[in-house]
Every structure is written in C-alpha cells, then in structure tokens.
UniProtKB/TrEMBL annotation:
Protein name per Swiss-Prot or TrEMBL: LacI family DNA-binding transcriptional regulator
Organism ancestry: Bacteria, Bacillati, Actinomycetota, Actinomycetes, Micrococcales
SMART domains: HTH_LACI
Keywords: DNA-binding, Transcription, Transcription regulation
UniProt KW DNA-binding keyword: yes
Annotated organism of origin: Knoellia koreensis
C-alpha cells in the first residue's frame, strides 16, 4: 500500500491498516473509540497497533518539537499515603524542570492500553508504576515511540527503571522478628502484584532459610485499609494462625493493628505486626509501628528527573537505579519503644 513508510522511524496509520487488513478510516474509528466497529475488527486493529508500536503522527510531531512540555504519570489508583507521596515528589521535580504533569489512573479503565496511547498524544513521555493493574505490555508498547520510565519495576529495552531496595531490608526486618522468638510468621501481600512485593517476599523467605526454617506461603491480599481489617478478622476468628504478621505496606499493617485491638488482641504481646514505607502515622500510633523506611517522595522526584533526561536525550541510563531503604525499629515487633524513632 502506498505511503506505509511516510512516517520516518515508526509506523503510520497506513501500515496499521495494511497489517489489520482494513481501511485507514476503520483504524481511525477504532482509535477514537467508536462503537461502529465490530469487536473482531477492533481486536485486529489494536493487535496491529501494538505490534507496530503505532503512535498518531500528531503526537510524534509534538514530541519532536517538545510541544507539550508535559510529563505523563500513570498510577494504579490514588488511595493511601504511598501514591500521594509519589505524586508530590514527581510533580514537584517536574515543575522545577518547567514541565506540567498529566495524571492518569488505571483504576476504572476497561482498556488501560488504549487509555495510555491516548495519554501519549498529550505528553512528551510517560512514567508509570509497575503494578498488576497496569499490563506489562503497556511500557513495551510505548517504548520506541515515547520515553518511558517504570517506577518500582524492571528495566527493559528502551524502558528505564527506578526502584527502592526491597529484598535485603525485608530480610533484615524478618530476621529481626524471628530474633524475638516468633516462629509462625505470615507475609501479607501478593508477590505477583509487582516486583517490589515479590522482592519483599523473597527477603522474607531468605531470612527463614538462614535459620533453616521453612517460610509460610504468602497470604495474598491487596494493600488497602479494608484488606487489613479482613486479614485481622481471619486472625481473630482463628482461621489464620500466626504470632507475627509481616505486612507488605504500612497501610495494611496499621489497619490490622486497629482491628486486632478492637477484637481484644494486644500488639505485640499476642502477636507482632510490622509494615513497610514508614508513613507518618507509623510513628504516632501506639505501639509505634516497626517498618522499613523508603524514600517515596524522592522516588517520585527521580522518576520525573529521569523521564525529563530521556525526553531531552541527556544522560541516558540503561541500568535500574535503586534508592536505599532503612529498617526502623519501634514497639510493634516487641522492642522497647524509642521516643525518637
């Protein structure tokens, strides 16, 4: 078909139409979300778009001239302190670089891939958080068409990654709980939900292996407050037997502690509870929450900085950058309270 190479360095609407075996008008209707195209045809077009990594010409032109002066940020949702800290760090650094931020949430989107392709037409590059809510195909589809940075994920060709250290600190946290004499530890969080939770569970397992103990399988739960209450109810009902809960984030741990207290259990006397993130509330609850401090706001700022570097073709980094984390001991694990922690 004539014109398939008209867009230098990338696919055109013509090449998408040719690959899908449809007209360019049909491709246009599909990309605009029209309901006048059959599901079968829509699938053929979207498959061609993904295989060819097609980006509308207007978006490619805007990228070439730095027209948007905007960074895209894709998050699973905005509930909980982690996302707000990450967003504040990202927006603050982007503003310092003279860029605005266009935020998109995966929550509630029937087709995240299509929504992200639409976002890509309005920004110069996209940072996204590695999460089960965001398909792995999304950064791969964008790579080569738009600069991409993955937060708390893994680097791939044309996709830069930044993260915080997880496995070693999770091992140290778990080893500390085991040193208190606890032997029926349960890890609360789904290792399949993202590389960060996967590595925290790996650290949990490694600490057990060092003592020639067998780590329990993870209790797969999301990390929201409501999930913490449900987890505590399982403990109170005797359905889940444990003397220590190693929670994959503070939001889950704090909700567990509150519900256990309401149910007449005492932390850490009846069971220890530890978390991850070191949100502000962790130091003010009673008992104080033992956790791992990770620099979430700094992570967001670094994501904006690295994305801007890729957009401007300056100082491109291929390897994954890892920010350090720190074990913070308070009373919820059984330690003597430290008023300064």
């Amino acid at each position: 078909m004539a014109g398939t190479q008209g867009q230098k360095g990338g696919a055109t609407i013509y090449s998408v139409a040719e690959r899908a075996g449809v007209s360019i008008a049909t491709v246009s209707r599909v990309l605009q979300g029209s309901d006048k195209v059959s599901a079968k045809t829509r699938q053929r077009v979207m498959t061609a778009v993904e295989e060819l990594r097609y980006m509308p010409l207007g978006a490619a032109r805007s990228l070439a001239v730095r027209h948007h002066e905007a960074h895209g940020l894709l998050l699973p949702e905005l509930s909980g302190p982690y996302y707000s800290e990450l967003l504040m760090g990202f927006e603050s650094r982007a503003a310092e670089l003279g860029q605005s931020v266009v935020l998109m949430l995966a929550e509630g989107k029937d087709d995240v891939g299509r929504a992200v392709r639409s976002l890509a037409t309005r920004v110069d590059g996209i940072a996204l958080l590695a999460s089960a809510a965001i398909p792995d195909s999304v950064p791969e589809t964008l790579a080569g068409s738009k600069p991409v940075v993955v937060i708390a994920g893994e680097a791939k060709p044309d996709v830069e990654a930044i993260t915080t250290e997880n496995a070693a600190s999770a091992k140290a946290l778990t080893a500390h709980v085991l040193a208190h004499g606890r032997r029926r530890l349960v890890f609360a969080g789904d290792p399949d939900s993202g590389p960060d939770i996967r590595d925290r569970y790996a650290g949990f397992v490694a600490a057990h292996e060092d003592l020639r103990l067998t780590a329990a399988a993870p209790v797969r739960t999301d990390l929201r407050e409501s999930a913490g209450a449900e987890l505590a109810d399982r403990v109170l009902a005797g359905e889940l037997t444990t003397d220590a809960l190693v929670c994959a984030n503070d939001e889950l741990a704090l909700a567990v502690m509150k519900r256990l207290r309401q149910g007449g259990r005492t932390v850490p006397d009846d069971l220890a509870v530890v978390g991850w993130d070191d949100v502000m509330t962790a130091r003010y609850v009673e008992p104080g929450l033992t956790t791992v401090r990770q620099p979430v706001r700094e992570l967001g700022a670094l994501a904006a900085e690295r994305l801007h570097a890729r957009i401007t073709s300056a100082d491109i980094v291929d390897e994954t950058q890892v920010l350090p984390t720190q074990l913070v001991l308070r009373a919820s694990c059984g330690c003597t309270p430290d008023p300064l922690a």
